[in-house]
Amino acid sequence: PAPKPKKRFRFLRWGWRLTWLTGVGLTGALAFEIYAQRHPEEQFEPDPEKKTLVILGTGWGSISLLKKLDTENYNVVVVSPRNYFLFTPLLPSCTTGLIEHRSIMEPIRNILRHKKATVKFYEAEATKIDYEKRVVSISDDSEIKGDISHTEVPFDMLVIGVGAENATFGIKGVREHSCFLKEVGDAQNIRKRIMDCVETAMFKDQTPEEVKRLLHMVVVGGGPTGVEFAGELQDFFNDDLKKWIPEIKDNFHVTLVEALPNVLPMFSKQLIDYTESTFKEEEISIRAKTMVKNVTDKYIQAEVTKPDGSKEIETIPYGLLVWATGNAVRPVVRDLMNQLPAQKNSRRGLAVNEYLVVNGADNVWAVGDCAISNYAPTAQVAGQEGAFLGRLFNTMAKTEAIEKELKSLSDAQSQAKSDDDRNQVFDEIRERQRQLRRTKQIGPFQYSHQGSLAYIGKERAVADISWLSGNIASGGTMTYLFWRSAYLSMCFSTRNRFLVAFDWIKAKLFGRDVSRE
Ligand code: FAD
Ligand code: NAI
């Protein structure tokens, strides 16, 4: 028999056992989660007598609401032209192929199939909300259409979570010549165009000026979208493009154009300076105080404010133009605003009260970028608003059920034949009243800011994190590791987390793919 280890080494043996058991436990839990994801349980149809709750959109706000909502309490109908949820924080990485777009998409069908009671989904755009008639007109805008592609969906309760569209401020040529960065299709389009510019610049006998223009990548808007994209694009050039196509080395250039004096206005001064100095190291040019006024197919014209305050119009040639100047109101939302007198002073979206009810409308709520609350239009805000509404609707359903019970109990009490029966019903009524008070305790929506994070290229990120009652500002490689782990853990599903992690490993091992599809 093996000799017994000395007493002082026994703790090592216990340490190994504990590690092994934890490993087995975690693997088992993961295997169970994957199994459960692939094998949803049977669903049941909700009672048709229950209220119809229509949810518009499948973005951050609507999906957070659906995650929290007990669907057995309502007849839930979801309408969105997108039959998936998109994890937008990693979308800039899709423009260079660091992450494949399907890795950050979660099919709405998977999400809905895991709810207890069935939820109807229509892949369509809401074209009009008729508040008086309480119907939403919907239209199937996909390539394949059946005999019916326009219809109406009636609602008792409506949640508007349609997000926002890209702001262009009516500047001529923006829609025709630039790429936006909001949807999966935009990221695919940019990826294709980067390679198209590079290959066209390499075309036989191309003039030096044309090569320079084609390889000039201009990003308009120094908010987080523009900054993250510029950082990703420069990484693509440094890590891959210049290795495989060394001829572009001297002419490939990224320029970020911003109307304000600095980029990332929502971050602290220290992080703005850090971002600007990192961009300088990376050789990304920042053109601050430069407001684009006109866009053509080959150049932009911008009004530049000089240090002495004078203004000058400058022409900047480009090969690729990415437009990231923030949000604008969607037409369907604008139309509803025009129907409601209480919204006549709203400009940037639907004004809502502290319970996210649209001002001037009964039983209509708005979440995320289409609603104007006191907070920035971010995924963080939209997610918390959606989760709040989920809890609110669950509470409302519970309250209604208890109130119904209370009514039948008080009927029973008045018909009770003996004092004993009456006392018993009285106790039950007291208990239900206590429950009612507890459920009705839900307060107004309160946003809890966790902080802001942005990737700035060169494996560096900036973060303004809320900590206890203060703020921590940090930037650099450690922040980048934090950025990666934070977003990996926030991905919608285990499947998304695996795919994103694989994409990162794949790009580290083999580089990004430079083929144009
Ligand atoms: P969205 O998520 O945009 O969803 C809107 C939904 O409505 C979509 O499903 C859309 O298809 C659907 N829809 C549109 N029109 C209609 C219609 N007519 N009828 C029915 N449905 C319709 N925020 C952060 O907090 N952190 C980040 O790191 C971050 N990174 C970002 C990176 C990029 C590139 C972008 C573009 C945004 C980023 N944001 C980030 C902002 C964040 O994505 C938005 O604030 C958030 O998506 C808003 O959520 P939402 O539900 O209001 O709208
Ligand atoms: P934004 O509104 O934050 O920034 C747009 C920028 O474009 C502004 O700085 C503005 O001055 C500039 N601009 C406008 N018109 C211009 C013109 N004609 N010429 C030059 N510059 C012009 O927009 P963005 O970056 O699209 O973000 C939208 C929302 O999404 C924001 O609320 C943002 O916080 C959020 N978001 C958050 C991210 C993060 O937390 N990492 C990443 C991406 C977006």
Automatic annotation (TrEMBL):
Keywords: FAD, Flavoprotein, Membrane, NAD, Oxidoreductase, Transit peptide, Transmembrane, Transmembrane helix. Residues 449-513 form the External alternative NADH-ubiquinone oxidoreductase-like C-terminal domain. The keyword Transmembrane applies. Belongs to the NADH dehydrogenase family. It comes from Penicillium alfredii. GO terms for molecular function: NADH dehydrogenase (quinone) (non-electrogenic) activity. Pfam families: NDH2_C, Pyr_redox_2. Its EC number is 1.6.5.9. It catalyses: a quinone + NADH + H(+) = a quinol + NAD(+); a ubiquinone + NADH + H(+) = a ubiquinol + NAD(+). This is NADH:ubiquinone reductase (non-electrogenic). It is an enzyme of class 1 (oxidoreductase). Residues 52-386 form the FAD/NAD(P)-binding domain. The chain crosses the membrane at residues 14-36. GO terms for cellular component: mitochondrion.
